[in-house]
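Chapter summary example.
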Amino acid sequence: MTESILISTTMAFQDGAPALAGQPVVASTTSTGEPGTAAPVTQKPADPFGMMWMLIPFLVIMVLVSVMGGRRDKKKRSALMSSIKKHDEVQTAGGIIGSVVELKDDTVILKIDENSNVRMTFAKSSIVQVIKSGNGNGNATGTEVQSLKS
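The structure predicted for these 150 residues follows.
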């Protein structure tokens, strides 16, 4: 038994160092058991750019999707800001609901409480939703909700 292990170990090291992990093992004997030369098995080298050619189109698609989504949100936001007018009932980012009393370039004055005539000034960009659209006379014409949420 020891002799057969010694012979197989000797045969494995005849060509030099043993095969590394992942490398094909080349037999040093012929099919009859006699030492001889066998044809070495060759592997095709891995293409270092193979994975990159698949990754580049994927990244381009991801960038295009994110840019198009940003444009769509920007259009919705600008449509919402341009549709705000006096007597609209709006909601701010902080959750405050009020009626638009006055519009300026960057600010909006909201009437928060009808009984005590509480008015607050907000940045126009803090409005996230138009709850009711007024017709200019103070009467709400519909219960349409125009918001940035999809």
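To summarize the output: The chain has two helices and six strands.
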